[in-house]
Amino acid sequence: MTRLPDFRLETYFSRWEFTARHHLTASDVQTMTLGELLALGDDQDRAAFENLSLGYTQTFGDPALREAIAGLYVRADAADVICFAGAEEALYLAMNVLLGAGDHAVVVTPNYQSAETVPLALCEVTGVALDPDRDWALDLDAVKAAIRPNTRVVSVNFPNNPTGKVISTADFAELVRLCDERGIHLFSDEVYRGLERDPARTLPQAADLSERALSLNVTSKSLGLPGLRIGWITCRDREVLSRLERAKHYTTICNSAPSELLARIAVQARATILDRNRALIARNLPLFDAFFAEFADLFEWRAPDGGCVAYPRYLGADGVEEFCTRLVQEAGVLLLPASIYRSELTPTPTDRFRFGVGRADPEEGLAAFAQWLRARR
User: Where, if anywhere, are coiled coils annotated (predicted)?
Assistant: First the structure.
C-alpha cells in the first residue's frame, strides 16, 4: 500500500463520532432502515434478498446493479460502470491507475483529504483553491495555468465537500473542454449530486460529457445509505475500466452480495429517496438560518448550493480549533474544524468548520449548541 499520512477526518471521527451526543457535522443525509429500503423494492426484490446466495460476486459488480447505475447517465451503459466498496476505494484505485512517478495532477481545494493526499503520494500535484471571498468560485484561468504537459488528471468535487459549492454548468463544460483538448482525465466526484437546492443548477455528469472523464458516485451521501459501502465509477474509456478492475483484484476483489442487491433497489428508487432527502434538507435549513441569525456576531453563515454540508466562518477570538474542541467536550456537540480540511497545496481558511444539514431532527443538537453559546456570553 502506498505510504499515506493519517486521515485527519477519520482520526477525528474515531475519537468523537459515536461518543458525542449531538452530531452536527454529518456528511450524509439521514439514513433509513433495512425494512424501509426493502419496502422501496418489489416482491421480486424482497424474495431475491431473502434467498440470496452469499458467495463471491463479479469484480466489476453485479450486472443488474451496473445496469441500474447506467440508467442514471445519458451516454453510458452497464459496460461503462465498475463498482467498489464505497467511494474511497474507487478514488484510491483510480488515482493509482491514472497516475505514476513523472506525472502531474491538478486538484481543487478544499476537498475530501484523500482527493489530495493519494495523488500527492504518487506524483507532483498542483492545487487550485476555491475562493471564499467570491462565494467559493472556481477560477478556470487558474486551472488552465496549473496544467502542465505531463498533467494526467484534474480532480474536482461539485457539489463540494465541505463548502456546498456548485459551479455553473457553463464553467463545468469549459472544464471538461480544457481537459479533453489536452488529453487529461477529468476525475469528477459527484457524490452529492441530486441534493441541489435549485434542481436547475444540477450539473451534467462528467462521464456524459467526455469519454475520458470519470464520474465518481456512491450510495452513502445523496442517498443516505453509507452502511451499504457501495460506490462506483462510470467512464466510457473501457481501457481505464479494465485497469481499474485489475487494480481492484488487490483490494476488495468483489463487493458484498447483499449490499449490491440493496444498492440496486436504492438506485432504482433514487428519485423517491432524493425527493425525501431534499425535503428533509429544505425543512432543516430554516432552523439553521434562525440559529445563525441569533449568533450573527459569532458566525458568517451561508446555506450550501447543494449537498448536505456547509462551511460557516467562526468569528470568535478564541479561534475555531479551540472553539470546536470545547464545544464537543463541554456540550457534546460535534463539528469539524478547519484543520481537518487544511491543504498541503494551497492556502486554506483557518476560521471555518463543517456543518451538516441533512440529518433528521437537529433541534436537540441546535438547542444544546445555543445553550452553550449563551452561557459563554
Answer: none
